[in-house]
Hints:
Elements: H1 5-8, H2 10-13, E1 20-24, E2 27-35, H3 44-60, E3 80-85, E4 101-107, H4 114-128, E5 136-140, E6 143-151, H5 157-171, E7 173-175, E8 183-187, E9 200-209
Antiparallel strand pairs: 1-6, 2-4, 2-5, 3-4, 3-8, 6-9, 7-9, 8-9
Helix pairs in contact: 3-4
Amino acid sequence: xxxxxxxxxxxxxxxxxxxxxxxVPRANFVAVRGEGDPNVQGGAYQQAVGILYAISYTIKMxxxxxxxxDGFFEYVVPPLEGFWWQDGMDGVDYSDKSSFQxxxxxxxxxxxxxxxxxxxxxxxxxKKGLDCTPAGFLTIDEGLCVQMMHLGTYDSEPExxxxxxxxxxxxxxxxxxxxxxxxxxxxxxxxxxTVAEQRKTVIRHPIKPVxxxxx
Length: 215
């Protein structure tokens, strides 16, 4: 059976529909940075997603070609993820999608080294006739976070975020957004095949303990 990240790391990909703390380990991704409304047909975000999947499947199927990756094992391509922010704001304002800054990403197995990634970018560009140069090899170390499963439309995510914020307040934590720690979403449902009200999305926020006065 191919290795499935969602099944092997359930605490990261299949949280319950209530807030919980999680310590997220360092991981590597194929990533594309961009800005603007992700819903624009044929826009930058949708183009980025196409590049990410093309490269990810080139790596996944590499064992059938001449390129050999040390430590390779068969696996299921992990779900699409997104890191979102807007300048001058903690979290995100869903009513102003045109001002979104984003990093769209797909996790890479640990056996993928930088040289393997570079090969995949070149190979995908050659075979698909697709400019994959916007893609980068990105390492993210999220650390301590709060997360929960969101069921429903993307526009209804603020309701879930409010539950997460209340949980933090009750338990002595606060959000800890920064240049390296962003609002994070993991998309478990294919929006082309799942009605909006039934989409499953992991929402994850970086956090820190709140220092009590005099402590």
